[in-house]
Amino acid sequence: MLCRGRRFGGSVVESLPAMMETEMTEFVSTQVQGGVAYLTLTRPQALNALSLEMIRAITGALQSWENDPAVHAMVVAGAGGKAFCAGGDIRWFYQAHQANDPLLDQFFVEEYALNHLIHRYAKPYIALMDGVVMGGGMGISQGARLRIVTERTKMAMPETNIGLFPDVGGGWFLARTQGHIGEYLGLTGAVIGAADAIYAKLADAYLPTNAIAEMVASLQARQFTSGEAVLEQIASFTRQHADACVPSTSQLASNAALIDTLFAGASAQAILAAVSDAEGDWAAQTAATLRSRSPLMLCVTLEQIRRARTMSLEDELRMELDMMHDVFRHGDGIEGIRALVIDKDHQPKWNPPRLDEVSGARVRAFFDSPWRKDDHPLATLGA
């Protein structure tokens, strides 16, 4: 990354002035000033990972602001300087599953409803994607009208690493990246930075972290009467800082032709074979990554992304809830979380252990809904 000027540090939310009227629930802070609402995730010790209570607090705030004529736009950020949001609270997922807690299913119902609300939000929703942005963090940012990344952005949909699949609308937005980048990111869970995010159209604009704090301060110094005026203020600010710092060259762009060739295969097994046969360090590292992932969820994820290309967002989110109903009951999710997060032995016992042992029938079963159409918990999305 080539930068000029000051070194960057600190948290975006450190610039929020004390004079702002603040409301807080546990791990979520909301503020309104000058016609702009600010929502901050305040769970930095867990990289702002989402709990069910946080999802409910965010949903309530967004619904309130959407109907408030004094609010014209909203800005969401993460506290602590390390993460926007690292995803869902997977440690709680494991504990809830072990306790047979019905709130585990309810978590995903409400999370996906929140993801839909953000994608269809009536007012400009602006996501400041500074630091770690993974899993559930992508779910509360990809539907934003404006997605801003920084030199600290570490973006990924890493679910196959723990035996899950890229949910929170992941199938839908990964399927809409160019070429076969969606398959590459979904299957490998690769972590990308700002340049890659912009290239893949998973981000809209870039600013260095300290410039984001200055931008927030510039918003707070004004009184806005429309959401478009807020967006224009941000656009003007980014133009002023266009030369301050530029992201490094996108590795996705450099490897785009290779990705499109290797990840076009009809099956996960065909993709792994193609990657394994390719020359170079990148291909070797990518093949090693694929071999470490859950074979079952590689196949499920590929099917999810391919199906999502022709689906509406609403139908894709309903499909994800059907899939999630199975993943903790018949998939590798609990074993992946155990190995990577709970016991940390990093030796997951995937079932089955090999790609060539994954049956088509088992993959297709993930896409069978346990609910009748009218009884689906997300039946009213888009109504």
From TrEMBL:
Q: Which UniProt keywords apply?
A: Hydrolase
Enoyl-CoA hydratase/isomerase domain sequence ranges: 37-367
The reaction(s) annotated as catalysed by this protein in its Swiss-Prot or TrEMBL entry are: 3-hydroxy-2-methylpropanoyl-CoA + H2O = 3-hydroxy-2-methylpropanoate + CoA + H(+)
| Name this polypeptide is given | 3-hydroxyisobutyryl-CoA hydrolase
GO terms under biological process: L-valine catabolic process
- The signal peptide annotation in the UniProt record is none
Task: Name the lineage.
Answer: Bacteria, Pseudomonadati, Pseudomonadota, Betaproteobacteria, Burkholderiales
Q: Quick check: keyword Cell membrane in the entry?
A: no
**Origin, by domain of life?**
Bacteria
Annotated source species: Cupriavidus metallidurans (strain ATCC 43123 / DSM 2839 / NBRC 102507 / CH34) (Ralstonia metallidurans)
